[in-house]
Amino acid sequence: MIQIPAGTISIRGKEVAVMPFWIGETEVTWDVFDIYAYRMDLTPDQNAMGVDAQSRPSKPYGAADRGYGHAGYAALGMTFHAAESFCVWLSKKTGQKYRLPTEAEWEYAARAGATTDPEKLDDWAWYWTNADDKAQPVGKKQVNGWGLFDVLGNVMEWVVGLDGKPVAAGGSFMDKKKDVGFAVRQTQTPKWQDRDAQRPRSKWWLSDGPFVGFRVVREN
Question: Which parts of the chain are beta strand (E)?
Answer without folding.
Answer: 2-4, 7-11, 14-18, 21-23, 98-99, 156-160, 166-169, 185-186, 212-213, 217-219
